[in-house]
Design a protein that fits this description.
This protein has about 50 residues and is an all-alpha fold. It has one domain. Helices cover about 95% and strands about 0% of the residues. It contains one helix and no strands. The N and C termini lie far apart (about 75 Å).
Length: about 50
């Protein structure tokens, strides 16, 4: 009985790790897109100011 509970906890723990890694990679991608957007805006401002 105790072994079965332990195995289930291990499985849920590994899936939590996978979800956490996926969330981190998604967050990094969205921050990259945000930085790209900011550089486009800054380039447009520089272009208009010239």
């Amino acid at each position: 009985m105790n072994q079965r509970i332990g195995r289930n906890q291990e499985a849920s723990h590994t899936s939590d790790k996978a979800l956490c890694a996926f969330g981190l990679s998604h967050r990094i991608d969205s921050s990259r897109q945000y930085i790209n957007l900011q550089t486009y805006i800054i380039n447009d401002l520089i272009y208009y100011l010239q």
